[in-house]
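Re: that backbone. C-alpha cells:
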C-alpha cells in the first residue's frame, strides 16, 4: 500500500509502526489543541466514548521454556532485581511466586540454536520494571533501570 510519501509495508514493520504512531500523535495533538476548552461543572455527568470493539491482530510470539523460568527463579528468587518488589509481601499468598522473567538478550535476537543459561540470561523483574526495561530498543539493562530508580529516590 502506498499513500503520499509514506511507504507502508515496505519490509521494515517497526519503522512503519513508528511513523504511523508519530503521525497519529501529531494529528491527535492538533485535534485536542483545536478543541474548545469548556469548564466542567461538578454536577454535570461526563460521558466518554465507547470501547471494546473487536480487532484481530496477527503478531509473532516467541516460545518460552517453563524449565528455564523455574531454574531462573530457583536461583534468583522472586524479588524484582530492579526495584526489589516482592508480590508476596504485598498480596500474601495471592502474590506468592508471581514475577516476570526478563531475557537479558531479547528472544527475537537469539535464534533457535542459542541455548539459554537460566542464571546468566534470565532475571526476575516485576511487571512494571519489565515494561520500563522495554521502553527502548535495545532494552535498558537491569542495572540502568536500577540506577534510574535509585537516582529518583534521592
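Recovered sequence:
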Amino acid at each position: 500500500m502506498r499513500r503520499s510519501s509514506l511507504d507502508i509495508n515496505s519490509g521494515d514493520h517497526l519503522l512503519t509502526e513508528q511513523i504511523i504512531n508519530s503521525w497519529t500523535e501529531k494529528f491527535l495533538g492538533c485535534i485536542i489543541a483545536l478543541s474548545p476548552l469548556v469548564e466542567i461543572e461538578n454536577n454535570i455527568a461526563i460521558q466518554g466514548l465507547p470501547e471494546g470493539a473487536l480487532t484481530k491482530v496477527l503478531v509473532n510470539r516467541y516460545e518460552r521454556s517453563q524449565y528455564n523460568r523455574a531454574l531462573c527463579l530457583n536461583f534468583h528468587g522472586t524479588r524484582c532485581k530492579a526495584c526489589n518488589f516482592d508480590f508476596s509481601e504485598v498480596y500474601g499468598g495471592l502474590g506468592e511466586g508471581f514475577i516476570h522473567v526478563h531475557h537479558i538478550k531479547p528472544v527475537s535476537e537469539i535464534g533457535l540454536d542459542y541455548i539459554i543459561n537460566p542464571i546468566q540470561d534470565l532475571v526476575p523483574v516485576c511487571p512494571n520494571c519489565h515494561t520500563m526495561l522495554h521502553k527502548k530498543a535495545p532494552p535498558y539493562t537491569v542495572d540502568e533501570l536500577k540506577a534510574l530508580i535509585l537516582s529518583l529516590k534521592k
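The chain has a mean pLDDT of 86. The chain is about 40% helix and 10% strand.
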